[in-house]
Amino acid sequence: MSRHLTWAPRLSLAAVLVVIALWLVPRAVSAQATTDETLQRAIHLYENLEVERALTLLRQVISPSTPFVVSPAQRVTAYKYLGAAHAILGQKDSATVYFRAALERDPFVDLDAEEFTAQERSLFELAKQQTFAVAVRPMVRVRIDPRTEHMTFVLLSTHGALLTAEIRDASGIGSLIFEAENDGVREVPWNGILASGRLAPPGRYELVVRGVSRLDSTRVDSARLYFTVEHDRPNLEDTLPPLLASDLLPEHYPASAAAKELAKGVAVGVAAIIIPEVFGKREFSASSRGLGATVAAGGLAVGVFGYRWRHEHSAIAPNIALNARRRAERAATNDEIVRRNEGRIEETALVISPAAGVGP
Amino acid sequence: MSPRRPTVGRWSALGAAIAAAVALSATPARAQITVTPAVFVAYVNHQVDIGFGDERTSGPVLGADIRVAPTSWTEVTITGYAGTLTPDSGDFDTRRMSDIELSGSVFATPWLAFQLEARARSYTTALARQRWLSLTVGGELREPMFDGAVQAVLRVGLLPAVDVSGLPSPNFAGTAGAGFQFLRAPLTGSVIFSFERYDFPTTSNGPRSEQVAMVTAQLGVRFPR
Q: CB burial class (10 A; 0-12, 13-18, 19+) of residue B107?
């Protein structure tokens, strides 16, 4: 019973929120929809040559006092049809003003020859001559194989201009990808290669488009497009580290090795001396000791010679050869890894995506 | 019931054991068999004391041996030498010394070998011949020097079975040696000082001791080269 009592206020609050949401959402949608409906009605009237009525609706759309939300695209459309309507009415100056307003907001705006008359398009062309703007069309994410494919930047100048397009990396180093006379829309291909001749490394870039009007060289304009470049390729292998001393066999005998050589020779010499002394019968004469002494002297001589020889020949040739073989094998393995990595790098694809922001 | 018959039986058993060891060791790795024939010259000093002082004879002997290594850890050597020993002083007889040996070595490590050796030796004078048969059990250390071109050699052994014609078996018989072996393929060589001591039990003729000291210089060729 008490649980029902606890849940009741919560359900009431949720119901109130739902009602508020249902009340607010249609209003926001309807505001946008109303502008769109107004535009569609205006265009319909324009197409039915009810130009004055169409002008009224179009002026409502661009009016600062309109209560509805007007998107930039809707505003451009409104200006375009305002210019066309005025052109039909023979009001060339007004038509040109509206067309220029549309062009200034979206240089890519155009009049379709199937929908607009030659007179309208003529005035639109006049507006383009009077307006100078360059633009670059927003890009979509693309993936290209730089060996065989390219992406396309779409540039535009509203009338004849010297147009340059340059890609700048984060450090500001630029690579010119286009420089030519242009009038209208221009597709500029780019295969991901920078002016250095190398593949664009991953990072953030900026496409800077600059134009100088051929009608009035004092009129210049520029546009920017930001994008990122990523490398899409199989993971690279790490080369093996150089062999450390702990991975290799000692290549030289320690200093104690010479002493050991001496000790062995001396041990033989001492043994040859003491064998007849310790092992022999005391009653016998020392003639056997004489034979032992001969070998003892030889043992000492061999020991001393071995001591000096080891000092002069401290290298351990088999170990040196084995280490050299290990190093060669390691180098060959690394060369193979580098070759495999180079193959993978050659297969690198570029993923070029639009980026937000104000600069690289 | 001659007391020497059991000794002869021991020699036969020893020979059979060495032959079996060689055959077994050779079977698994015939490709590694090396054969080293060699000649050597030695200077021998033979001393005998039968209670009347040091009876010493000495002289050079010439010999040859052939060493077969069926594997890297076994060796079998047959050695023979002979020479005339002349008395250094006094009125002793010149005697001819002849010796033939068969020894087998098994290496427990590259530097330690255990040896078993059978030997037949004779001393011949104008009046008589004395025959020695013995069995030696011992060990040998071989320490490499000069990156293996030389080996320092120390050896020691006991002779648990010694049979001397006309004499009782010695109470104690031992041998020791020291020297160097050389290998500069295919040549091999060695300079070894070896020493033997025999203490016989005192008989009605009195105490008897003998010892043999020898310095050997050997040169051989190893096959395959």
A: middle
CB contact under 8 A, A292 and B193: yes
Q: Which domain holds residue A108?
A: 21-130
Task: Indicate the pTM of the whole model.
Answer: 0.58
Asked whether the beta carbons of residue B193 and residue A275 sit closer than 8 angstroms, the reply is yes
User: What's the complex ipTM?
Assistant: 0.84
pLDDT digits (tens, 9 = 90+) for B205-219: 788 899 999 999 999
Q: Does residue A360 sit within a domain?
A: no
Please tell me which residue, A282 or B200, carries the higher pLDDT value: B200
A54 and A151 share one domain: no
Q: How many domains does chain A have?
A: 3
B-proximal residues of A, 12-71, CB under 8 Å:
none
Last residue of a domain, one of A115, A130, A145: A130
A31 and A124 co-located in one domain: yes
Residue A306's Cβ-count burial label (10 Å; 0-12, 13-18, 19+) is buried
Best of A278, A283, A291 to mutate (most B CBs within 10 Å, chain B): A291
| Rounded distance between C-alpha atoms, residue A6 and residue B109, angstroms | 91
Single out the residue of A357, A263, A250, A233 nearest to residue A314, CA to CA. Answer: A250
B191 interface with A at CB cutoff 8 Å? yes
Per-residue tokens: A308: 């000096």
CATH number at residue A220: 2.60.40.4070
Task: For residue range A325-335, list pLDDT tens digits in order.
Answer: 999 999 999 99
Interchain proximity A295–B145, CB inside 8 Å = no
Paired sense of beta strands A142-144 and A151-168, if any: unpaired
B45 touches chain A (CB under 8 A): yes
Cα B76 from Cα B35, distance rounded (Å): 10
